[in-house]
Amino acid sequence: MSTGPSGSLQARFEDGLRFLATALALDVDHRHSAAIVSTACDAIQCFLLVFEAAAQQHLADPEGETARLRGQLEALLTPSQSADEAARHAIEAARLARDQAARVLPRLMG
């Protein structure tokens, strides 16, 4: 079992991976758009904890990945999109969040 702040971040990152895997599995049949969006958003919430810790330590974002993720999250929040578009945006945002959190987490734990 993980202890301390970095262990907690690692556990939440792993939770996010499980949520993302579930969203991707739901996406295979394209019939559960609301469940896809909900589960992908759960993944994003887990990854956001890593970003919050990175912000508290003032870690740099030289590649601009956090800004790219913000754009994808804004697309997810567009009110007039179809359920399929929302599902696609949610999965893409969760993937971007996972990738960025995976880059940042080792620097937080090191």
Anisotropy-based shape: globular
- Average of the residue pLDDT scores: 85
Strand fraction equals under 5%
How many individual helices? 4
Helix content: over 70%
**Helix-strand pattern, N to C?**
HHHH
Number of strands: 0
> How far from one another are the termini?
18 Å
Low-confidence stretches: none
Class computed from helices, strands and strand pairing:
mainly alpha
- Main beta sheet strand tally, sense and closure: none
Rg result:
14 Å
Summarize this structure as a short list of keywords or feature phrases.
single chain; 110 residues; mainly alpha; globular
What does this protein look like?
By secondary structure, the chain is mostly helical. It is built from 4 helices and no strands. It has helices at residues 4-27, 33-56, 65-76, 83-109. Helix 1 (4-27) runs antiparallel to helix 2 (33-56), helix 2 (33-56) packs parallel to helix 4 and helix 3 (65-76) packs antiparallel against helix 4. The radius of gyration is 14 Å and the shape is globular. The chain starts with a helix and ends with a helix. The mean pLDDT is 85.
Task: Write a concise synopsis of the structure shown.
By secondary structure, the chain is mainly alpha-helical. The protein contains 4 helices and no strands.
Walk me through the topology:
Layout: H1 4-27, H2 33-56, H3 65-76, H4 83-109
Helix pairs in contact: 1-2, 1-4, 2-4, 3-4
